Amino acid sequence: MPIAHPPELLRLRQTLDRIDNHLLDLIGERQQTIAAIGEIKRGMGKPLRDFAREKEVLALATAHADARGLDRSLAHELMKLLIQHSLTTQEHEQIRAEALGDGRRALVVGGGGQMGRWFARFLDSQGYTVELCDPALETGAAGVAEFAQRRRLDDGALDQDLILIAAGIEASVGVMHALATRQPAGVVIDVASIKAPLATGYQALQQAGVAVASLHPMFGPGAVLLADRHVVVIDLGSARATALAHSLFAATTATVVAMNLPDHDRLMAEVLGLSHAVNIVFAAALASGGADERRLDGISSATFNAQTKVTRAVVNENPKLYFEIQSLNPNSAEVLARLGQALDELRAALATGDLARFAALMQAGKQQLG
Prior knowledge:
Elements: H1 7-44, H2 51-68, H3 72-98, E1 105-109, H4 114-125, E2 129-133, E3 148-150, E4 162-165, H5 169-182, E5 187-190, H6 199-207, E6 212-217, E7 230-234, H7 239-248, E8 255-259, H8 261-289, H9 293-298, H10 302-315, H11 319-327, H12 332-351, H13 355-369
Parallel strand pairs: 1-2, 1-4, 2-3, 4-5, 5-6, 7-8
Antiparallel strand pairs: 6-7
Helix pairs in contact: 1-3, 2-3, 5-6, 8-10, 8-12, 12-13
């Protein structure tokens, strides 16, 4: 028998439904207003992102929440989410309006992979005529059917304005050497996560007179919002290639960071290598414990939930790519050694009952992270 609800409960639920619909109407009105603001900004030649205005909006939201007795963190996070989606709306409009790639052609090598597909769609949105090159491509495959395709570099001319290499790290080296032999007139840009293994490829392209630069998008193929995302650009000696690399994200809300080649892999050992290792080890330790995941979720803490959310994202990534990020970075051994030392220090503090030693570990982290 269905449960009979009191009339007052039904009335309140109907009121809540009306409020929810009104909220969605207001969000739609906000998005329309944002689109109009973006159009004015484009006409004035102003950048999409105004950090001072964002700060003002968030401060106002917090103040209004306080005045109404609402949770200020809820107001802050809600407004931040709306700002990010607003930036994305303006971003898509500006990319289409500027059409930086209009009339240009791009070849995405490794276009059958997830990141290759992301860049194919991204370049297509800028007006580039995109062709994919990947031996694993299947005719009519989902997500790439709208693009011209080839399986090998030799299956067509290399006269594109941009050749973007989105193959695996080791595969990218072979692609670079093949391109150096063909000496394309366009710009060659790779998007590899680790750059040291590509050194011979960069050198071959440079010696062949090919304009080459390097990109590293600090996000995965699932990225939709580029606000608060970073893109690293590495100057390899070609002003033309470096300028094109910068221009690809100029109309977006991503933050473009210029970096030199030696610094890149050293920093990636921390940003990618260490964070990946911590989460892989965390997942492996959980798995070896044999605890029922449902029971853990049933009593989980906020810390556990936050950690497992990140860990799930890591362990569901491509193992080969993550192995390359660890094994091909010359700085990985030193970073992993520090991870091991920190774990040894934690074990020693607990084994000896040394609170001061334990606290020193937390204090060191606090000073580093702020």
